Amino acid sequence: MSEVLKNNWYLVCPSSDLDNKMRTFKILSEEIILFRDKEGNPIALEDRCCHRNVNLSLGYLKNDRPVCGYHGWEYDKSGQCVLIPSQLPDNKIPPKAAIKKYAAKDYNNWVWLFAGNPDEAENYSPTDIPEMKDWPFTYKEYIFEADLESTAESLIDPYHIAFTHRDSIKQLLGQIEEFPAEFHIDFLEDGIKGSYKRSNKGNIGEKIYFGSHDHHDVNYRFYFPNISRLETRFNKRVLLILEHVYQVDDSHVSMTQITLWQNIFPKFPLFAKKFMAKKSDTIVKEDIQFLVSQKKHYNKMKDEIHEVSVKGDEVSLAFRKFWRSKLRGE
Questions:
Q1: Tens place of pLDDT per residue across the chain (330 aa)
Q2: Is the domain of 253 the same as that of 151?
Q3: Burial of residue 40, with CB atoms counted within 10 A of its CB: 0-12 exposed, 13-18 middle, 19 or more buried
Q4: Are 244 and 226 in contact (CB under 8 A)?
Q5: Which of 123, 154, 179 finishes a domain?
Q6: Which of 72, 117, 122, 126 is surrounded by the most beta carbons within 10 Å?
Q7: How far apart are CA 106 and CA 56, in angstroms?
Q8: Do 271 and 169 sit in the same domain of this protein?
Q9: Rg (CA), the chain
Q10: Is residue 46 a contact partner of residue 150, using CB atoms and an 8 Å limit?
């Protein structure tokens, strides 16, 4: 995997979801265990026992120490082996009996993991999205076979909403009336951002609740290399969708969709969360079927693949230009 992708912080779960039990993740082909120690700190270690190269996650935790379920080797929070049951107490543990440790921390009420060299972690910061700290949300991770670039781009593709999500979103987010629309695009050091307007085509009930103004303001943002953001404002109500993506292995990607909102069903928070979770799951699955289909053609045609783009693709083309330049280290 590209070092450009490794030297970044990756979101793994809400802080409240992590406790003193081992959870497993695979990021950029790195198999990792994650847990909290008794002081509440997130600890991330390689999911491998260096004795016979089996997964540590097949074992258990004992006093903040992962214990291999095969021969009982124990590791401390730095990844150093500190106990080998088959040795006498005064026998020296081999210095090479150690596994990789990863930098991990809580930030904005989420747990983040640095996939690269932990000594480099302080030179980078997790993506700062303040709404993640305060707004109600629902989230779910999906792992599937797809192209990473296309998956990262999918949320901010403006024109697919009316077609891919014609049965789920319907008219709620409105429609783009101009062909092509007037897109505002800015290139930043860490990504791209922009805005455009969608015509308010909601039904009568939606217009009563979300407003009868002519257009919705839509703001999009991509934070290299792993988070896309799409924000739609309906007067005082806001719907914010984040998609966090990363390469799992050579074929599969992970996409975690985090749906946040403000002033939507505020008097019925449990209903709002259940409604948003169900709607978000439907929407993501609609996207995934196309991303999987696309990857199948990419695999078949490899370097011979050809795509026809038009003026209306300018947001996607701007994203690809930025993405590819960053992967080249430019």
A1: 578 899 999 999 999 999 999 999 999 999 999 999 999 999 999 999 999 999 999 999 999 999 999 999 999 999 999 999 999 888 899 999 999 999 999 999 999 999 999 999 999 999 999 999 999 999 999 999 999 999 999 999 988 887 888 777 655 555 555 555 678 899 999 999 999 887 766 666 565 556 666 667 889 999 999 999 999 887 788 899 999 999 999 999 999 999 999 988 899 999 999 999 999 999 999 999 999 999 998 888 766 777 888 888 899 999 999 999 999 888
A2: yes
A3: exposed
A4: yes
A5: 123
A6: 126
A7: 23
A8: yes
A9: 23
A10: no
User: From the CB of residue 12, how many other CB atoms can be counted at a distance below 10 Å?
Assistant: 24
SS3 156: coil
Residue 77 and residue 37 in contact, taking contact as beta carbons nearer than 8 Å? yes
- Contact criterion met (CB below 8 Å) for 43 and 37: yes
Question: Hunting for tokens 């289909």 — which residue is that?
Answer: 293
Q: Are residues 155 and 221 in the same domain?
A: yes
Q: Where are the alpha helices (DSSP H) in 94-168?
A: 131-134, 148-154, 161-164
Residue range of the domain that includes 197: 131-327
Query: Same domain, yes or no, for 100 and 39?
Result: yes
Structure tokens at 266: 């505020």
Residue with tokens 């930030």: 107
Whether 49 contacts 56, CB under 8 Å: yes
Please indicate, yes or no, whether residues 79 and 146 belong to a single structural domain of this protein: no
CATH number reported for the structural domain that contains residue 60 in this entry: 2.102.10.10
